[in-house]
Design a protein that fits this description.
Blueprint (H helix, E strand, L loop, with lengths): L2 H15 L4 H10 L6 H16 L3 H18 L6 H19 L3 E4 L2 E4 L1 E11 L2 E5 L7 E5 L1 H21 L6 E10 L1
Parallel strand pairs: 3-6
Antiparallel strand pairs: 1-2, 3-4, 4-5
Helix pairs in contact: 1-3, 2-5, 3-4, 4-5
Protein name: HicB-like antitoxin of toxin-antitoxin system domain-containing protein
Organism: Microcystis aeruginosa (strain NIES-843 / IAM M-2473)
Length: 182
Amino acid sequence: MNEQRAQAYVNLIEQLLTSADGEELNKILQANQELIDPEFLQVMENYATGLEQQGHNNPAAWLRNIAQQLGQFLNPQARSIEEYQGFLLEVLQAEAEINDGRAIITDNDYYYKNMQYKVSLKQTEEGYAVWCPGLPGCASQGTTKEEALNNIQDAIVSYLEVAEELNQGVESCYVEVELNHA
């Protein structure tokens, strides 16, 4: 990686960290799409490590969360502009929920204090696909219906265990499962 590109990565990271709101974050990401690549994600991780060493744990966790979501977007299976826009909306939603205290940051994931999810279980040619925005570990594709439902249950149990470990508790727990046939 050349020095100019490395500096561009650092500048982009600093812009992301100082963005005033979700709309600004969205604009920054859209304006710098050409910089979002696997090397950028590695620089983000290194920058987050530096922040942690300076005692800035929340910005480091936030940066890792964004990097993780960008990494999912860089997956070659993500193809359309609609997917990219949906991804950006998820990033903005996560940022808002963390900033207003409805979510808890731990490691690279964030967890909600009030668990209210609409889980989409879609039957496809490959099997069942599960999508549950915001619930870490609750996404799978090409599984049986039973495996998909177990995946949802495991993600909920994992969420509750993390909330308990953080002594945060869960104020409410509501999960709606919607079955869609392809």
